[in-house]
Amino acid sequence: MPFAAAFALAFVALVIAFSIAWMVQLRTRNAGMIDPLWAATLGLVAVFAAAVGPGAGINRVAVALGGGAWGARLALHLWRRNHGQPEDPRYAALRAQWGDAAAPRMLAFYLMQACASMILSIAFFVPAWSVATPAIPLVVAALATGLAAVLGESAADRQLRRHIADPANRGRVCTSGWWRYSRHPNYFFESLHWCAYTLWSIGLPWGWATLAPPFAMAWLLLKVSGVPMLEARLVHSRAGYREYMRTTSAFIPWPPRREEQHHNSERRPHP
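Structure tokens predicted for Steroid 5-alpha reductase family enzyme (271 residues):
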């Protein structure tokens, strides 16, 4: 199948899927199920690209397994988190902010998810359409990066789920496991996952285009729909979250800053 036709078909399918999801949320008044749908459909785009692409077999297998496994795991996690629960506070806040215009603006928001998915899907389409194959060291680096990303995100999700499930932790900040070193380790590993396709595509035709997905994902999470919206709520709903923000890296896992270092830096005179 020609690249343009496959890319357009995937986009149309996403628009239809997200439009149906939007109609469902009109009835349920719960927009949160867009999250597992987004992960599942993007994983299916990876499988689709691998199935119809004319690229080398190893490229297509890597895309199908990497993108498909990532999408299935994340979709299942998000479904378990959101199904049967009240609407995610982020979406509830948007609905309240938009007021009478909530319905059309939510549709625009859903369709923007489809556009974002297509930017991310560049990571799948480039290798799936390339008859050239990466060098062995790049294959190893890409596979190691992808595996580390999936395992790391799975561990971070599991640690947070365990923290929330304990009644003793109600209203408290999770600082165990990866959450000791990053306020959003799941976001970091999510962005890292997209770097695996960039490594795989080094030297392939149009391989430079696969730089867009990891940068786009990091930008969305850090500047748009991830950290800003989430932390605006957490500073009011989690005891000690402001201090957690001062001592803990927002994104890249890093040893936490000691409290005494924070106070010393505040007392140090500035030139």
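Confidence is low (pLDDT under 50) at residues 260-271.
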